[in-house]
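Continuing the series of single-chain predictions for the mutant panel. This is the parent chain; the variants come on the following pages.
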Amino acid sequence: MTFIELVDKGTKFFESMGVSEDIATHLFQILAYVVLILFSFVAYRITEFLLKRVIIPLVRRSKTHFDDLLIKNRFFIRMAFLMPALIIYYSVESDLFIHENISNFVKDLSVIFFYVIGALIFESLLSTVNDYYKRFHVAKDHPINGIIQVLKIVIYLIVLLGIFGYIFNKNITTVLLGLGTLSAVLMLIFKDPILGFVGGLQLIFNKMIAIGDWITMPKYGADGNVLEINLTTVKVQNFDKTIITIPTYSLISDSFQNWRGMSESGGRRIKRAINIDMDSIKFCDKEMLKKFEKIKIIKEYINRKEKEIAEYNAAEEIDPSILVNGRRQTNLGVFRAYLKAYLMKRTDINNDMTFLVRHLDPTEKGIPVQIYVFTTTTDWGQYEDIQADIFDHILAVIPEFELRVFQFPSNAEIFKLISGKPIN
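Parent structure:
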Protein backbone atom coordinates (compact mmCIF):
# COMPACT_ATOMS: atom_id res chain seq x y z
CA MET A 1 0.00 0.00 0.00
CA THR A 2 1.38 3.37 -1.04
CA PHE A 3 1.29 6.48 1.13
CA ILE A 4 -1.30 8.06 -1.21
CA GLU A 5 -3.63 5.07 -0.78
CA LEU A 6 -3.07 5.22 2.99
CA VAL A 7 -4.02 8.93 3.04
CA ASP A 8 -7.20 8.18 1.04
CA LYS A 9 -8.22 5.35 3.35
CA GLY A 10 -7.51 7.40 6.44
CA THR A 11 -9.48 10.36 5.14
CA LYS A 12 -12.44 8.12 4.20
CA PHE A 13 -12.33 6.57 7.68
CA PHE A 14 -12.85 9.96 9.29
CA GLU A 15 -15.50 10.88 6.68
CA SER A 16 -17.40 7.70 7.64
CA MET A 17 -17.65 9.17 11.12
CA GLY A 18 -19.71 12.04 9.70
CA VAL A 19 -17.14 14.82 9.26
CA SER A 20 -16.45 16.81 6.11
CA GLU A 21 -13.64 15.96 3.72
CA ASP A 22 -11.48 18.95 4.78
CA ILE A 23 -11.82 18.18 8.48
CA ALA A 24 -11.19 14.50 7.80
CA THR A 25 -7.97 15.40 5.96
CA HIS A 26 -6.81 17.65 8.81
CA LEU A 27 -7.61 14.98 11.41
CA PHE A 28 -5.66 12.37 9.49
CA GLN A 29 -2.68 14.74 9.12
CA ILE A 30 -2.72 15.48 12.86
CA LEU A 31 -2.82 11.76 13.56
CA ALA A 32 0.06 11.19 11.12
CA TYR A 33 2.24 13.82 12.84
CA VAL A 34 1.40 12.38 16.28
CA VAL A 35 2.34 8.89 15.07
CA LEU A 36 5.57 10.29 13.56
CA ILE A 37 6.51 11.97 16.82
CA LEU A 38 5.74 8.84 18.82
CA PHE A 39 7.70 6.69 16.37
CA SER A 40 10.66 9.09 16.54
CA PHE A 41 10.54 9.03 20.34
CA VAL A 42 10.45 5.22 20.37
CA ALA A 43 13.38 5.15 17.91
CA TYR A 44 15.32 7.50 20.21
CA ARG A 45 14.62 5.33 23.25
CA ILE A 46 15.67 2.17 21.39
CA THR A 47 18.88 3.86 20.20
CA GLU A 48 19.59 5.10 23.72
CA PHE A 49 18.93 1.61 25.13
CA LEU A 50 21.32 0.00 22.64
CA LEU A 51 23.98 2.59 23.38
CA LYS A 52 23.72 2.16 27.16
CA ARG A 53 23.42 -1.64 27.16
CA VAL A 54 25.65 -2.61 24.24
CA ILE A 55 27.94 0.14 22.90
CA ILE A 56 28.90 1.91 26.16
CA PRO A 57 29.72 -1.33 28.07
CA LEU A 58 31.96 -2.39 25.17
CA VAL A 59 33.66 0.99 25.23
CA ARG A 60 34.21 0.81 28.98
CA ARG A 61 35.99 -2.53 28.59
CA SER A 62 38.48 -1.12 26.11
CA LYS A 63 41.99 -0.22 27.26
CA THR A 64 41.98 3.31 25.87
CA HIS A 65 40.94 6.25 28.03
CA PHE A 66 39.71 8.50 25.25
CA ASP A 67 36.46 6.59 24.68
CA ASP A 68 35.80 6.58 28.44
CA LEU A 69 36.01 10.35 28.37
CA LEU A 70 33.57 10.39 25.44
CA ILE A 71 31.08 8.63 27.70
CA LYS A 72 31.74 11.10 30.50
CA ASN A 73 31.07 14.04 28.19
CA ARG A 74 27.82 12.47 26.88
CA PHE A 75 29.05 12.10 23.30
CA PHE A 76 27.13 8.87 22.61
CA ILE A 77 23.93 10.06 24.30
CA ARG A 78 23.94 13.18 22.16
CA MET A 79 24.53 11.09 19.05
CA ALA A 80 21.29 9.23 19.88
CA PHE A 81 19.33 12.44 19.22
CA LEU A 82 20.29 12.22 15.56
CA MET A 83 18.02 9.20 15.06
CA PRO A 84 14.63 10.95 15.67
CA ALA A 85 15.85 14.00 13.74
CA LEU A 86 16.70 11.86 10.70
CA ILE A 87 13.35 10.02 10.87
CA ILE A 88 11.39 13.28 11.00
CA TYR A 89 13.49 14.96 8.30
CA TYR A 90 13.01 12.19 5.73
CA SER A 91 9.46 11.21 6.72
CA VAL A 92 7.89 14.65 6.14
CA GLU A 93 9.05 14.50 2.52
CA SER A 94 6.85 11.44 1.88
CA ASP A 95 3.39 11.50 0.29
CA LEU A 96 1.89 10.73 3.69
CA PHE A 97 2.06 14.42 4.61
CA ILE A 98 0.12 16.39 2.03
CA HIS A 99 0.26 19.87 3.56
CA GLU A 100 3.41 21.26 2.02
CA ASN A 101 3.67 24.33 4.25
CA ILE A 102 3.42 22.31 7.47
CA SER A 103 5.83 19.70 6.12
CA ASN A 104 8.35 22.40 5.20
CA PHE A 105 7.99 23.96 8.64
CA VAL A 106 8.59 20.61 10.40
CA LYS A 107 11.51 19.94 8.07
CA ASP A 108 13.01 23.34 8.91
CA LEU A 109 12.67 22.57 12.62
CA SER A 110 14.48 19.27 12.12
CA VAL A 111 17.30 21.05 10.25
CA ILE A 112 17.65 23.56 13.11
CA PHE A 113 17.65 20.59 15.49
CA PHE A 114 20.50 19.08 13.43
CA TYR A 115 22.51 22.29 13.85
CA VAL A 116 21.98 22.30 17.63
CA ILE A 117 22.79 18.61 18.08
CA GLY A 118 25.85 19.01 15.85
CA ALA A 119 27.09 21.82 18.09
CA LEU A 120 26.54 19.73 21.21
CA ILE A 121 28.37 16.77 19.66
CA PHE A 122 31.35 18.96 18.75
CA GLU A 123 31.29 20.41 22.27
CA SER A 124 31.49 16.88 23.69
CA LEU A 125 34.45 16.11 21.42
CA LEU A 126 36.29 19.27 22.46
CA SER A 127 35.61 18.62 26.15
CA THR A 128 36.91 15.08 25.66
CA VAL A 129 40.08 16.33 23.98
CA ASN A 130 40.62 18.77 26.87
CA ASP A 131 40.07 16.09 29.53
CA TYR A 132 42.37 13.67 27.70
CA TYR A 133 45.06 16.36 27.39
CA LYS A 134 44.89 16.99 31.15
CA ARG A 135 46.17 13.46 31.71
CA PHE A 136 49.60 14.49 30.42
CA HIS A 137 52.17 16.25 32.58
CA VAL A 138 52.57 19.06 30.04
CA ALA A 139 48.96 20.13 30.74
CA LYS A 140 50.02 21.54 34.10
CA ASP A 141 52.31 24.14 32.50
CA HIS A 142 50.35 24.54 29.25
CA PRO A 143 46.60 24.15 29.89
CA ILE A 144 44.34 24.47 26.86
CA ASN A 145 41.09 25.34 28.66
CA GLY A 146 41.06 28.82 27.15
CA ILE A 147 41.66 27.54 23.62
CA ILE A 148 38.94 24.91 23.98
CA GLN A 149 36.48 27.52 25.24
CA VAL A 150 37.29 29.79 22.29
CA LEU A 151 36.69 26.89 19.88
CA LYS A 152 33.37 26.18 21.57
CA ILE A 153 32.33 29.81 21.18
CA VAL A 154 33.37 29.73 17.52
CA ILE A 155 31.31 26.57 16.95
CA TYR A 156 28.23 28.07 18.57
CA LEU A 157 28.66 31.26 16.54
CA ILE A 158 28.92 29.23 13.32
CA VAL A 159 25.80 27.26 14.29
CA LEU A 160 23.87 30.45 15.04
CA LEU A 161 24.97 31.95 11.74
CA GLY A 162 24.09 28.69 9.96
CA ILE A 163 20.60 28.71 11.48
CA PHE A 164 20.19 32.38 10.63
CA GLY A 165 21.32 31.79 7.05
CA TYR A 166 19.04 28.76 6.67
CA ILE A 167 15.96 30.55 8.00
CA PHE A 168 16.46 33.61 5.82
CA ASN A 169 17.87 31.63 2.88
CA LYS A 170 21.18 33.47 3.00
CA ASN A 171 24.67 32.18 2.28
CA ILE A 172 26.73 32.03 5.48
CA THR A 173 29.56 33.92 3.76
CA THR A 174 27.18 36.79 3.05
CA VAL A 175 26.07 36.73 6.66
CA LEU A 176 29.69 36.88 7.86
CA LEU A 177 30.43 39.81 5.57
CA GLY A 178 27.35 41.58 6.85
CA LEU A 179 28.57 41.14 10.41
CA GLY A 180 31.61 43.26 9.57
CA THR A 181 29.47 46.34 10.08
CA LEU A 182 28.71 45.10 13.60
CA SER A 183 32.35 44.45 14.54
CA ALA A 184 32.46 47.33 17.03
CA VAL A 185 29.38 46.00 18.79
CA LEU A 186 30.81 42.47 18.82
CA MET A 187 34.09 43.75 20.24
CA LEU A 188 32.16 45.43 23.03
CA ILE A 189 30.06 42.32 23.72
CA PHE A 190 33.02 39.93 23.66
CA LYS A 191 35.53 42.28 25.27
CA ASP A 192 36.11 40.09 28.36
CA PRO A 193 36.45 36.80 26.43
CA ILE A 194 38.89 38.41 23.96
CA LEU A 195 41.00 39.98 26.71
CA GLY A 196 40.80 36.75 28.70
CA PHE A 197 41.90 34.67 25.72
CA VAL A 198 44.85 36.96 24.99
CA GLY A 199 45.78 37.08 28.67
CA GLY A 200 45.46 33.31 28.99
CA LEU A 201 47.80 32.73 26.06
CA GLN A 202 50.37 35.10 27.58
CA LEU A 203 50.11 33.38 30.95
CA ILE A 204 50.52 29.92 29.43
CA PHE A 205 53.24 30.50 26.86
CA ASN A 206 55.29 32.80 29.10
CA LYS A 207 54.96 30.19 31.88
CA MET A 208 53.74 32.84 34.28
CA ILE A 209 51.24 30.51 35.90
CA ALA A 210 50.32 26.83 35.82
CA ILE A 211 47.69 24.63 37.39
CA GLY A 212 48.76 23.75 40.92
CA ASP A 213 50.86 26.91 41.44
CA TRP A 214 50.52 28.73 44.74
CA ILE A 215 49.78 32.38 43.99
CA THR A 216 48.90 35.39 46.13
CA MET A 217 47.01 38.41 44.82
CA PRO A 218 45.77 40.60 47.70
CA LYS A 219 43.66 42.77 45.38
CA TYR A 220 41.31 39.83 44.82
CA GLY A 221 41.86 38.11 48.17
CA ALA A 222 43.63 35.19 46.49
CA ASP A 223 46.12 33.12 48.47
CA GLY A 224 46.11 29.50 47.39
CA ASN A 225 46.54 27.01 44.57
CA VAL A 226 45.42 27.48 40.96
CA LEU A 227 42.65 25.01 40.07
CA GLU A 228 41.69 26.08 36.55
CA ILE A 229 42.78 28.54 33.88
CA ASN A 230 39.72 29.35 31.79
CA LEU A 231 38.91 31.78 29.00
CA THR A 232 37.86 34.68 31.22
CA THR A 233 38.78 33.58 34.75
CA VAL A 234 41.45 31.81 36.76
CA LYS A 235 40.05 29.74 39.63
CA VAL A 236 42.08 29.72 42.85
CA GLN A 237 41.35 27.64 45.94
CA ASN A 238 42.52 29.51 49.02
CA PHE A 239 44.03 27.64 51.95
CA ASP A 240 40.79 28.17 53.90
CA LYS A 241 39.11 26.14 51.09
CA THR A 242 37.24 29.14 49.68
CA ILE A 243 37.25 29.58 45.90
CA ILE A 244 38.34 32.85 44.29
CA THR A 245 37.90 33.67 40.59
CA ILE A 246 40.29 36.20 39.11
CA PRO A 247 39.81 37.77 35.66
CA THR A 248 42.48 36.21 33.45
CA TYR A 249 43.59 39.52 31.99
CA SER A 250 44.11 40.94 35.52
CA LEU A 251 47.02 38.55 35.97
CA ILE A 252 48.68 40.31 33.04
CA SER A 253 47.71 43.90 33.85
CA ASP A 254 48.15 43.68 37.66
CA SER A 255 50.90 42.19 39.81
CA PHE A 256 50.67 38.87 41.62
CA GLN A 257 53.09 36.62 43.46
CA ASN A 258 53.80 33.10 42.23
CA TRP A 259 55.48 30.79 44.74
CA ARG A 260 56.46 28.21 42.11
CA GLY A 261 60.15 29.16 42.38
CA MET A 262 60.09 28.39 46.10
CA SER A 263 58.42 25.04 45.47
CA GLU A 264 60.90 24.09 42.76
CA SER A 265 63.92 25.17 44.82
CA GLY A 266 63.14 22.55 47.46
CA GLY A 267 63.43 25.04 50.33
CA ARG A 268 61.19 27.60 52.00
CA ARG A 269 62.49 30.80 53.53
CA ILE A 270 62.44 31.62 57.22
CA LYS A 271 62.78 35.36 57.66
CA ARG A 272 62.02 36.42 61.21
CA ALA A 273 63.68 38.64 63.78
CA ILE A 274 63.78 38.85 67.57
CA ASN A 275 64.27 42.26 69.17
CA ILE A 276 67.04 42.31 71.77
CA ASP A 277 66.94 44.84 74.58
CA MET A 278 70.01 47.01 73.90
CA ASP A 279 70.50 47.65 77.64
CA SER A 280 71.41 43.97 78.03
CA ILE A 281 74.29 44.09 75.51
CA LYS A 282 77.77 44.18 77.08
CA PHE A 283 81.39 43.10 76.76
CA CYS A 284 82.20 39.58 77.85
CA ASP A 285 84.34 39.24 80.96
CA LYS A 286 86.44 36.19 81.80
CA GLU A 287 83.67 34.53 83.79
CA MET A 288 81.20 34.90 80.94
CA LEU A 289 83.68 33.52 78.43
CA LYS A 290 84.43 30.60 80.76
CA LYS A 291 80.72 29.83 80.93
CA PHE A 292 80.28 30.17 77.14
CA GLU A 293 83.19 27.76 76.55
CA LYS A 294 81.08 25.04 78.15
CA ILE A 295 78.59 25.35 75.26
CA LYS A 296 79.89 22.60 73.01
CA ILE A 297 78.92 23.98 69.58
CA ILE A 298 80.65 27.35 70.15
CA LYS A 299 83.64 26.25 72.24
CA GLU A 300 85.93 26.23 69.21
CA TYR A 301 84.60 29.64 68.11
CA ILE A 302 85.24 31.18 71.57
CA ASN A 303 88.82 29.92 71.73
CA ARG A 304 89.60 30.92 68.15
CA LYS A 305 88.12 34.38 68.61
CA GLU A 306 89.92 35.00 71.91
CA LYS A 307 93.24 34.01 70.35
CA GLU A 308 92.60 36.31 67.37
CA ILE A 309 91.66 39.24 69.66
CA ALA A 310 94.66 38.67 71.94
CA GLU A 311 97.07 38.68 68.99
CA TYR A 312 95.50 41.87 67.62
CA ASN A 313 95.57 43.71 70.97
CA ALA A 314 99.17 42.62 71.58
CA ALA A 315 100.25 43.83 68.15
CA GLU A 316 98.54 47.17 68.71
CA GLU A 317 99.88 47.42 72.31
CA ILE A 318 96.38 47.89 73.67
CA ASP A 319 95.88 48.74 77.35
CA PRO A 320 93.28 46.10 78.42
CA SER A 321 92.41 47.99 81.60
CA ILE A 322 90.27 50.36 79.56
CA LEU A 323 87.26 48.52 78.11
CA VAL A 324 86.92 50.68 75.01
CA ASN A 325 90.50 49.99 73.98
CA GLY A 326 91.14 47.26 71.43
CA ARG A 327 88.79 44.45 70.53
CA ARG A 328 86.58 42.41 72.86
CA GLN A 329 83.81 39.88 72.47
CA THR A 330 80.25 40.86 73.32
CA ASN A 331 77.47 38.63 74.59
CA LEU A 332 75.42 39.56 71.49
CA GLY A 333 78.27 38.56 69.17
CA VAL A 334 78.66 35.22 70.94
CA PHE A 335 74.88 34.76 70.76
CA ARG A 336 74.94 35.32 66.97
CA ALA A 337 77.75 32.77 66.65
CA TYR A 338 75.69 30.33 68.68
CA LEU A 339 72.66 30.83 66.42
CA LYS A 340 74.74 30.13 63.32
CA ALA A 341 76.23 26.97 64.81
CA TYR A 342 72.83 25.82 66.09
CA LEU A 343 71.13 26.31 62.71
CA MET A 344 73.98 24.63 60.83
CA LYS A 345 73.59 21.56 63.05
CA ARG A 346 69.92 21.21 62.16
CA THR A 347 69.25 18.74 59.35
CA ASP A 348 66.03 20.51 58.39
CA ILE A 349 67.89 23.72 57.41
CA ASN A 350 69.40 23.94 53.92
CA ASN A 351 72.99 25.18 54.30
CA ASP A 352 73.46 25.40 50.52
CA MET A 353 70.93 28.24 50.18
CA THR A 354 71.09 31.76 51.62
CA PHE A 355 72.13 31.47 55.27
CA LEU A 356 72.23 34.63 57.39
CA VAL A 357 72.04 35.59 61.04
CA ARG A 358 72.24 39.35 60.96
CA HIS A 359 71.47 42.63 62.71
CA LEU A 360 68.83 44.97 61.38
CA ASP A 361 68.71 48.69 62.08
CA PRO A 362 68.21 49.44 65.78
CA THR A 363 64.82 50.91 66.64
CA GLU A 364 62.97 52.12 69.72
CA LYS A 365 62.04 48.46 70.23
CA GLY A 366 65.65 47.26 70.49
CA ILE A 367 68.03 45.76 67.98
CA PRO A 368 66.51 43.06 65.75
CA VAL A 369 68.53 39.88 65.24
CA GLN A 370 67.16 38.31 62.09
CA ILE A 371 67.20 34.66 61.04
CA TYR A 372 67.30 34.41 57.22
CA VAL A 373 67.58 30.76 56.20
CA PHE A 374 65.77 28.13 54.13
CA THR A 375 64.25 24.85 55.25
CA THR A 376 64.82 21.59 53.40
CA THR A 377 61.08 21.16 52.82
CA THR A 378 58.37 23.26 51.18
CA ASP A 379 55.48 21.55 52.97
CA TRP A 380 53.56 24.24 54.83
CA GLY A 381 52.87 22.20 57.96
CA GLN A 382 56.44 20.95 58.31
CA TYR A 383 57.77 24.45 57.60
CA GLU A 384 55.70 25.98 60.40
CA ASP A 385 56.83 23.25 62.82
CA ILE A 386 60.49 23.84 61.98
CA GLN A 387 60.15 27.61 62.35
CA ALA A 388 58.32 27.27 65.68
CA ASP A 389 60.94 24.82 67.03
CA ILE A 390 63.77 27.20 66.14
CA PHE A 391 62.25 30.23 67.80
CA ASP A 392 61.05 28.27 70.84
CA HIS A 393 64.68 27.32 71.37
CA ILE A 394 66.01 30.84 70.71
CA LEU A 395 63.62 32.48 73.17
CA ALA A 396 64.52 29.93 75.85
CA VAL A 397 68.29 30.22 75.35
CA ILE A 398 68.63 34.03 75.19
CA PRO A 399 68.92 34.49 79.01
CA GLU A 400 71.93 32.09 79.01
CA PHE A 401 73.85 34.83 77.17
CA GLU A 402 72.72 37.48 79.69
CA LEU A 403 70.53 39.08 77.03
CA ARG A 404 66.90 40.13 77.26
CA VAL A 405 64.17 40.09 74.66
CA PHE A 406 62.56 43.50 74.26
CA GLN A 407 58.82 43.62 74.85
CA PHE A 408 56.41 46.26 76.06
CA PRO A 409 55.75 46.05 79.81
CA SER A 410 52.65 44.14 80.83
CA ASN A 411 50.04 45.45 83.27
CA ALA A 412 51.51 43.19 85.95
CA GLU A 413 54.98 44.65 85.47
CA ILE A 414 53.66 48.22 85.64
CA PHE A 415 51.79 47.40 88.85
CA LYS A 416 54.93 45.83 90.29
CA LEU A 417 56.95 48.92 89.40
CA ILE A 418 54.45 51.31 91.01
CA SER A 419 53.66 49.30 94.13
CA GLY A 420 57.07 47.79 94.64
CA LYS A 421 55.35 44.52 95.49
CA PRO A 422 55.73 41.20 93.67
CA ILE A 423 52.74 39.77 91.80
CA ASN A 424 51.60 36.35 92.97
